[in-house]
Write a structure and sequence with these properties.
The chain is an alpha+beta fold. It contains eight helices and 15 strands. Strands 7, 8, 9, 10, 11, 12, 13, 14 and 15 form a nine-stranded mixed sheet that branches. A six-stranded antiparallel sheet has the order 2-1-6-5-3-4. β11, α6 and β12 form a beta-alpha-beta unit. It is globular, with a radius of gyration of 19 Å. It starts with a strand and ends in a 5-residue tail after the last helix. The mean pLDDT is about 95. It binds N-(5'-phosphopyridoxyl)-D-alanine (PDD). The site of N-(5'-phosphopyridoxyl)-D-alanine (PDD) has 15 residues, from α6 and β13. N-(5'-phosphopyridoxyl)-D-alanine (PDD) binds next to α6 and β13.
Length: about 280
């Protein structure tokens, strides 16, 4: 089964796909993206991802692109690849023009997509729990827009790997715990879940939203409020959430054990509930 790409209306093997060097995505990071995954051939929370893509485009003042065209391309990629557990990247740049900070009038957006099997989190990491470091958040102040400018995220992830950990957690200069390098973050303390509120400083994760609704249905106490690193270290459980991450327990942060240093019951329960919902093909 082939890994495929879509470039402005054409489908091709990934290794044949090219973008022009004067694409503003390449020159200025002037683009937005989405990542959508399927379970048993069904795309999980597709409409919610497309809503966010449209919000991201509006956030950068891109002209709108027909949703039905984007959906048709996604379905075609999913059909042709045949992957039951596919990961689809959709990336839209403002377009191609001779290099100039100012935006050329009439520039046309460049739409690319790729499809591959999801690179799953190893089962043993889920079982024993991940380790993380905290890093100061040096990203710009519109992290609610899913732009392709991911350098701070990428460098923070590498710093975590270089120090023998699995991921990094962004913390503001004032000590507010924000999110992971490609995931949102929840803590569980005395039976209550807390996650950073939706502000300009975090991505409004689709998995985060699904989990808030799951908690509501399961009568789990959850709040969206700010908390600091001391509260993070003292939590009974910590987990990261995202389209690939799903619900990933974190049992060690900055060398300190979280709770008993093993995966906690609430994290397990939420992971099971999320999987159940995704496998049933339901949006939350
Ligand atoms: N990243 N926060 C950040 C900074 C992210 O990059 C992501 C997702 C999330 C979780 O969002 P969602 O639940 O909608 O996947 C939170 C994707 C998966 C990526 O960069 O590949």
């Amino acid at each position: 089964m082939p890994d495929l790409a879509y470039v402005n209306g054409e489908f091709m093997p990934i290794e044949k796909a090219m973008v022009p060097i004067e694409d503003r995505g390449y020159q200025f990071g002037d683009g937005v993206y989405e990542f959508i995954a399927s379970y048993e051939g069904r795309l999980f929370m597709l409409e919610e991802h497309l809503d966010r893509l449209e919000r991201s485009m509006r956030g950068l003042a891109f002209d709108p692109i027909s949703r039905s065209e984007i959906k048709a391309a996604i379905f075609e990629l999913a059909k042709c690849s045949g992957y039951p557990r596919a990961g689809i990247y959709i990336q839209i740049s403002r377009g191609t023009a001779p290099r100039n900070h100012a935006i050329s009038p009439g520039i046309l957006p460049q739409v690319i997509m790729t499809i591959r099997p999801v690179k799953e989190i190893p089962a043993e990491l889920r079982e024993k729990g991940a380790s993380a470091i905290t890093v100061q958040d040096t990203r710009w102040d519109r992290c609610d827009i899913k732009t392709i400018q991911l350098l701070a995220n990428s460098l923070a992830k590498q710093k975590a790997l270089d120090s023998g950990c699995d991921d990094a957690i962004f913390v503001s200069a004032q000590g507010v715990v924000r999110e992971g390098t490609s995931s949102n973050l929840f803590i569980v303390s005395d039976g209550r879940l807390t996650t950073h509120p939706l502000t300009n400083n975090i991505l409004p994760g689709i998995t985060r939203a699904a989990i808030l609704r799951i908690c509501e249905k399961a009568n789990l106490d959850v709040e969206e409020s700010f908390f600091d690193t001391e509260t993070l270290y003292r939590a009974d459980e910590v987990f990261l959430t995202g389209t690939v991450t799903e619900v990933l327990p974190v049992v060690r942060i900055d060398g300190k054990s979280i709770g008993d240093g093993i995966v906690g019951p609430t994290t397990r329960r939420i992971y099971d509930l999320l999987r159940k919902q995704a496998l049933a093909g339901e949006s939350a």
